[in-house]
Fold each of these.
Amino acid sequence: MFKKIPRTNLLFFGGALLVFLVIQIAISTHLLNDFWSTIIRIGGVMAIVSLGLNLIYGFNGQFSLGQWGFYAIGAYTAADITYRWTNLNEATGLSILLIGVLLVGGAIVYLRSLLGKIRGLDALSAFTMYFLATLVLGVLAVYLGKLVGPAVAGLLLALPSGISLQIVFVLAVIIGGILAAEVSFLFGLPVLTLGSDYFGIATLGFTIIVKVLLDNSDTMLGFAEMKGARGMIGIPKITTWFWVFLALFIVVLVMRNLLHSSYGRAIVSVREDEIAGKAMGVDVAEYKILAFVIGSFFAGLAGGLYAHINGFLHPSSFNFIRSFDPMIIIVLGGLGSMTGTLLASFTWALLLEGVLRLVLPQGFETWRFVVYPLLLILIMLVRPSGLLGTYELPFLRQVLPPLKAFSKSNSNSANPESGHPVPLQEATK
């Protein structure tokens, strides 16, 4: 027998479908031109990045400026896979990275269960073991990827070109997210032992390191197609509004269900009071790394989508100044508010990249980077908790049982002879 679907669920899913259809129809009928279509897609991508940072900082309490670095990892990883497929007709990059992330992911899970049995193992020793395993499996993945690459390419070429390109694109975006998550796990093991402020400085350093590596990716890393500081071109423009909406919708559902689970409550308890959490048996280090890895996965996923919007990537788009964008968004929307993050992300894109770019006189477009912070300061003075504070849509916040159901479940508790405690309101009558 089917249970009745809650009204809040119907409103949320119906509203999401309505938003998707309205924007999709506007794009298809050219009511929205390419400029505004791109702005909306960038807003959706920024929402995914910012939701990941909100999980790390807003819900887990870890001040991080490394989200942009993981965003860049996902962008360049996905772009390199699709570039090689569309321009070189080879699936070697796809094969190597797919095998690599699967092997390294399996090794991390296995070593985590194994090292968890060793008492007193410090973070640096654990990091060394994970890092060595990653290097060995990375070399193995390169060998296996080159071996099976031609076979994978043959299978994809047997499909219609449009379908094979979409398959490669989806796999590339997912691989970009997983790779960012695995890098964040290795980076977070030693760094998450630092205090919140020092952790923020370390993550900012990570973003700078990633940017420098991208500047020299064609020489230092050997990826000639990335062209280093000149910028990577020839990336297929595959990211449509459908893919952005689908990814954002899945991220919202995953994050909502995570926060309402026992894992989510443990993640939030770390933000509230680490000492109290430890006293209640919460493994603080475990839940710090969990929030950090999931948030970084979201960033890598968003990076893969972003790379295929304009078909061009440049390391300057991932410098440390831009790393403050998702931080500003979650503060503007409200720390610990998914609804606020969604609203602020699209507001950020429409205002900064859309309205201000068009309204400001020609030659003064860069002044939007002055107007935008001034508006942010004004909002912080008027409403320090952000646009929505801690408000959540009914579907996203924890839904409590109806009052009637609560009264029915406690119908016997009013009788002292039943052995159940008497509710406070009954005891005070």
Amino acid sequence: MPTYPQLPQSTLPQADWFARSHDEVQFAYWVPNVSGGLVVTKLPMQTRWDHRANVEYARIAEDNGFVAALAQTRWFASYGADHQHEAFTLAAHLLSKTEKLHVITASHPGLWHPAIVAKLQATMDVISEGRSCINVVSGWFKQEFTGFGLPWLEHAERYRRSEEFIRILKGMWNEPEHMFYGDFYQINGAPMMPKPPHQVPVFQGGNSKDARLMAGRVSDVLFMNGNSNAGFSEIIDDARAEARRVGRDERELRFGANAFAIVRDSEEEAVETLRAIIENADVEAVKGFGEAVKQAGQSTHDKKGMWADSSFEDLVQYNDGFKTGLIGTPEQVADRIVELKQVGVDMILCGFLNYDWELEQFGRRVIPLVRERERELESRRLTAVGG
């Protein structure tokens, strides 16, 4: 592992939601900017992917308790997503059409140069007055690289490149002229003006050991695939330990959990909806996705990367969202979210079958219950402290 200089310390103001996230769990949603929705199923769904619908969803979300939206990035068809809106373009559009919502743009090192992304994000931050974020995704879809004539790196190397990518982002944002000499990128005294007027939160995806350690060193938020409490705890503990090892305050690091939410009036109805999604799965698309991602989990030295132990049913939601367990009544789902918060999860990244009505329903029926439970927990904590 190369020795890098200390990350520059930002003196810029943080987003309010980021500062609050240790006290209140925050909510984000997947932007459906690719066709096929958030599950690989032939079950009819009320979810649209065009830019007008996404503006509607963004406005609904910011009015109903969501602080952020994640625009995924796809270039080639996978998991049935044969049409895709480019993430940076759509993110800028959503920022221009909203007032409070933060938009997280996914970006692949190797397909984008970090200095260009730093400039894009700085401009988006200026225009949106501090509502732009970046999600650095090391990549699992080999064809998106080789199809564009670009090299495909092995797992550990992809994460080493991503770490350099993030170091350059933060250097460009916080230093008058940034210099960086790594194995993948070289920056020779590059200026960048204007700087972003706010700290741009850097999200990162990954479950593997490489991802955990990288997050501990350089990232602000680690997005994790769906998991059990034990699985989440292991990832969080590893990332925090690495942050301490490199002399970083572990409280600088937040954790997000992917979750596919099915909220219904009864638990039976929610479970039946899940069953219908899986029974109507697009078998060919799910198997194709499984073939494309199986090396992502198995190519790590400890075999603990994303999708390493995902079943066919898990892969119907392509980031293992069923595993997180947001399936049931509003009360059951709120209880589960508070449980995840106590495990160490700071943000829930939601996907839905029917964005046309479930996004608003979740904000109206679940988020207020979570806030009630958080207040109750805090009241009990203060009572216990007071003796």
Amino acid sequence: MISPLSTQDRDAVRRLVLINSVLGVIIAGISTRVFVISVPTLAAALHTDMLGISWALIVYQMAGIGLGVICGRLGDIHGHHRTYGIGMAMMALGSLLCGFSQNVVQLILFRFVQGVGGAMIQSSGRTLAFKAMPTGSEGKAQGLMAMSHQLGFFLGPPIGGLIIDWMHWRGIFFLLFVPGLVGVALCFINGRGAPAPLTGSREIDYRGAVLFILLTVIATLLFDQKVARAVGTGQEILLAAVFAAVFWIFLTHEKRVASPMINIGIFSMPIFAYGSVGLLLSNINQSLTTFITPFYLQDVLRLSPSFIGVLFLVPSVFSMVLSPVSGALTDRIGSRVLLILGVVVLMTSFVVGALLRTDSHWVLSAILLGLAGIGSAFFNTASQAAMIRALPKEQWGTAIGIINGIFGLGQMLGISLSGILLTWAFRYYSGVAEATPDPANRQIFVASMNLTYWIALAIAFVPLFTSMKFERRE
């Protein structure tokens, strides 16, 4: 018979759980940012275009959106520790397979495997971290997770740039294999003292999960330019109608089932509702920035991947330093002021992007990225901490899955929206009806990019409004 852990041993195990959670979030951050840095190189190496390679980004986010909530629910039922360990194994396997990809189709498929692992890591890893922290420290927990994620963002660009310049693009995927195995090993080591799984209802809403994944796929197809060209305008309208019908079926099902995948009732809480809208639109804009900027830096300003990697350290440094500060301030003064501050700084970054030219100094791009890092540190940390704090602890796993889904949806839609806006603007400025964004045509590409940033600025007024709806202290 296994003896129970002493208080000292239990505290030691919780610290190890926290360390492992941090490791997983760092790996997820590296996986996201190192891929963003490498997209121009990957597009050329795999003989595809800007819109084609964007799908390798989109499917990763799609997995996080469609599976994040169900992974959170599985963690609540079977234990987040077990779910987290499986996620680390999936991330390691997906990274290894991505490194062996021979074409863009294989890369997209294996990036989805990575995304499944990322969904498990993000949902269960963050939940484990929140439960390992003292009560009332939700802001600090979110700040620690955000800092860890940004540390991954910090490490990803320079490592990715150096590997591409001095070795081979495949090395950026092999890089993630070993730390993934380390995370799995840590799960075995500290499994005995892991937080207990849910003791209440153990029912899983698989039908709701399937409907939600279907909604994610349809939404992605609606925003993808390659699909739009293939199916035509009439079919797009039909696809939109199918989305509306599936969405109605999903809502009806979730209201009727005893243990829904998404408790629709939590969106009746003002903090969760306003926070969801603001977080979604803010992350759409942030993703738009991170997807467009590497093409501008590499193909317009002619900077090397290594130097671009260094520039992308700027937002990561600011976010890494300021996220814990934002979390601690959220615990003390509430989230409203921090949310407004974050949105205003993000809006300033969009103005800088709208004013970039073909011969702009790279310092302006560094300022844009730095402002984006500062704004996201304040906004994302404060909004997520406030949303989680608004719910009881037994719903934290599912709630974090929902928040990660919102975050991922914003990232995915930002990539798709940037493609849509750039394409429309490029066709307008070039006068060619079937043109696709081509950074080689520097003047037209930059003009299209500027217009996209002005639109992002207009979108940002919605998160500014939702931020003002938060109480001074939740």
Amino acid sequence: MTGPLEGLRVVDFSRVLAGPLCARTLQDLGAEVIKVEPPNPDVSRLASPIDANGVSGYYAQQNAGKRNICLDLNVPDAREVALRLCDRADFLVQNFRPGTLDAFGLGYEELAQRNPRLIYVSISGYGQGGPFRGRMAYAPTVQAEAGFTHHSLRHFGENLAAAQTDALSHADCYAGLQGVVAALAALRQREVTGVGQHVDVAMAATIMSINERAHVDLNGLELDGEPAILGAADGSFFVGPNGENFISAISLVGTITFRFFMAAMRRPDLIDDPRFATATARRRNLEALKSVVQAWIRSFSDMASLDTQFDEAKIAIGEIRSLEEVADGAWADYWTATHEVSDRKGGTLRLPGRPWKFSDAELPVPGDPAMQGEHNVEIVGELGYGADEVASLQATGALLGNRAAVMIANVTGAMSTHVDEAASDA
């Protein structure tokens, strides 16, 4: 058996998160990925903790297994190498500002003339056209512009000492995955038409599309104190019989879900309690209501018996665990929820595993994270370049080595000097 995308090739011009995640997911499904890295390396190589070879855990998580070629596209010979790579590609993934690759003759229209079957995936903050076309885009700023941050602040604002945004890059990750969805849809269409196409993915549109409560704001609905059903932030936190911290998946405030709790507790009398009779009243007296539920929870001897009672009432609960706890548990072992790759310095990096299992496909073994330019000679050799031509590419600066390692060495040396000077001053 082979991976579902075995035999397909991806040229990955992307950096940081959204694009690399898109290309990595295609690779996880069996495609071959060649990452084209510029002289100034993918900034994620500089994310701590980092090693002297230019490999960080952040970089490895999105790029392990990709072969790497380092090209300076300002040099004409490097552009020719890039064109030859794209001639052989099924997919191209890029997340530069709109127009960047066009300036190097690597836009969709130019490449499609040479390779009509190419599926060209562009991921940007706001799309390849329109009034926000040229804006810099990172997840926190796009989430702010697309209503995500406002929604969080509206929910938590009164409980926050100062405004803050989410800790994870939702806009990047969802946009990367939507890039995969669209790429596979275009692949299916290519089977019918024989022709590829340009796929334009906007992070802002993505973050709006995954907001399952958008219909409330978009239609000006008045909830009269009711939370939207299954609102992720509306579940209540409790402490289990033996000190376990856990959360319920549903709200104590919602009229329907409040009755689920009362059924679990065998307390129908509380439904008519004036403090809890309406959503507005429950919201106003939420701490008192939580105290009643918490007292009931303490009557159980363990989490297993409590979970059985909640399950009977259709209330899902989950203990709050660190990622390390999850990864070391029985479920993670069953699922193969983590895997290890080389850290390129004699050790290993533990990374998340794949989110799918196929009954009739075998996913490829995870590869190691490449150093910048590690596969230069190998890749251009596959494109038909001879030894003299490779030497010429290197001499002109079209083909470059591990600049990331040089940058890291310079930074490390400067930090060491600064520490030594501080010690001598002391």
